[in-house]
Amino acid sequence: MDQTAASLNKSSTVTAEAVSLIDEIAKASQEQAESTAQINKGVEQISAVVQNNAATAEESAAASEELTAQSLTMQELLSRFQLRESEPATLSDSVHAEVLISPAQENIPTSIGGKY
């Protein structure tokens, strides 16, 4: 009988240890699942930021192309104008000097009765 009681006592102790280990494994698994969920949430946030940055980069590229086109148009338009050659102006002369531009002056409408 003593052997049976000792054997049952040992079996009970081993079972309690197994239950304790299983409980620890369950808790660790739960913590791991929570950590994985947090990592997934972080990856989703990073993905959203990357997508936003990609969209912003595309918009910037489109704006850059538009500015390049406008710059080329502006250069083409400005190439039609030529400054008349004149004597070098002093600072006081340049402040009050009239800008002489051709052929733009020919296209300036004259005032009739205060209206253009």
Automatic annotation (TrEMBL):
The keyword Metal-binding does not apply. Keywords: Chemotaxis. The keyword DNA repair does not apply. GO terms for molecular function: transmembrane signaling receptor activity. One of its GO terms (biological process) is chemotaxis. GO terms for cellular component: plasma membrane. InterPro entries: MCP_chemotaxis. This is Methyl-accepting chemotaxis protein IV. It comes from bioreactor metagenome.
